[in-house]
Amino acid sequence: MIKTILITGATDGIGLLTAQKLSALGHTVLLHGRNAEKLDRVKSELGNSYPEVKLSTYVADLSDLSAVNAMASSVKTDHDKLDVLINNAGVLKTPQTITQDGMDIRFVVNMLAPLYLTEQLLPLIPETGRILNLSSAAQNPVDLDALKGQKQLDRDMDAYAQSKLAITMWSRILGEEMRGGPIVYSVNPGSLLGTNMVKGGFGIDGNDVNIGADILVRLSLDDELNASSGSYFDNDAGQFGAPHPDALDDEKSVAVVAAVKDLVTRLTSKH
Ligand SMILES: NC(=O)c1ccc[n+]([C@@H]2O[C@H](COP(=O)([O-])OP(=O)(O)OC[C@H]3O[C@@H](n4cnc5c(N)ncnc54)[C@H](OP(=O)(O)O)[C@@H]3O)[C@@H](O)[C@H]2O)c1
Fold first, then answer.
1. CA 156 to CA 167: how far, in whole Å?
2. Which domain holds residue 95?
3. Which of 169, 157, 168 is closest to 134 using CA atoms?
4. What is the SS3 string spanning 191-232?
5. What separation in Å is there between the alpha carbon of 184 and the centre of ligand 1?
6. For residues 220 and 241, what is the distance between their CA atoms, to the nearest angstrom?
7. Predicted pLDDT at 179
8. Ligand 1 pocket residue status of 91, Cβ below 6 Å
9. Which atom of ligand 1 is nearest to the CA of 113?
10. Is the Cβ–Cβ distance between 31 and 19 less than 8 Å?
């Protein structure tokens, strides 16, 4: 069956390779990127390779929630069903770490934007649908002051790892809330895969990016690869597993998710 699949951050790295693999399988792929030219290039390359596949593109800088809002509206205008949403776009190192709203960009792009986008697109996702949220083996306890932009973190990796624990917490809570509805997984695609993020962040070539793309394809399509909604798939182990203990702690997880939702409300009420 042909599925309709939205991949954020489909212009490079794991997201691009996942888009290629899903297109090769004949699925309808909604490609997201922040750079219109790069996104158009990806679309025309995929269109040339797979002329029968339906592709559409959405431009949004995920550090700006008004752009996320506009993107969600466009997706809803163009499509009445979304079988799979892959919240893949992410940032570790970037020259400008603080957004115009005074927030750490890692929290906004890696956590707030996926939550906001998902909330808006949920009406399109059928009960049989799937939502994949990109986590990481790097998960650090979330400092609520840093999350709220009231304190700056010194290390890129700390901000990144806190955002990844936050999205893992939210994935579990959302998955549990929606039992019987779309399945939600957080996914560590594999560590140190050789993308721009890893090459730029660690100065190494990194491991085969196919490791990450292949697991996203399987988790999108393979009914036999399943666990209860909200579970964490750890591709370093090749199986569902335990995230950071804080992601299994109800009190901590509820506090982080409530803070994220408050922030999204505050930031989007300015639109
Ligand atoms: N690589 C790994 O070993 C690894 C390990 C664990 C988790 N992950 C996670 O896997 C996901 C994909 O990472 P990757 O390694 O493939 O990184 P990547 O090659 O740097 O790709 C990141 C993607 O996100 C997009 N992006 C970045 N900032 C954005 C913003 N502000 N607005 C919109 N899009 C933005 C990028 O757009 P451009 O093309 O314009 O740059 C690109 O398409 C991330 O969530 C990452 O945290 C990766």
1. 17
2. 4-268
3. 168
4. CCECCHHHHHHHCCCCECCHHHHHHHHHHHHCCCCCCCCCCE
5. 20
6. 18
7. 87
8. yes
9. 32
10. yes
Which of 91, 216, 236 is the best mutation target for the ligand 1 pocket, counting ligand atoms within 8 Å of the beta carbon and taking the most? 91
Task: Find the helix packing angle between 13-24 and 210-221, rounded to 10°.
Answer: 50
Burial of 250 (C-beta count, 10 Å sphere; 0-12/13-18/19+): exposed
**Angle at the Cα of 248 (from 247 to 254), degrees rounded to 5?**
70
**Residue 98 tokens, joined:** 């603080």
Query: Total structural domains in the chain?
Result: 1
pTM, full prediction: 0.98
DSSP-based three-state secondary structure for 32: strand
* Strand order, beta sheet including 183-188: 55-59, 28-33, 4-7, 84-87, 130-134, 183-188, 232-234, 239-241
Q: How many Å is the maximal CA-CA distance in the chain? A: 50
CB of 31 closer than 6 angstroms to any ligand 1 atom: no
Residue 235 is part of a domain; what is its CATH number? 3.40.50.720
* 92 three-class SS: coil
Q: What is the pLDDT of residue 271?
A: 60
Q: Which of 264, 258, 68 is nearest to 170 (CA)?
A: 258
Q: Are 205 and 199 in contact (CB under 8 A)?
A: yes
Which residue has the least CA distance to atom 2 on ligand 1? 193
- Ligand 1 in reach of 210 Cβ (< 6 A): no
Question: Residue 195: what pLDDT?
Answer: 98
Strand partners, 240: 233
Q: Is the pLDDT of residue 270 over 80?
A: no
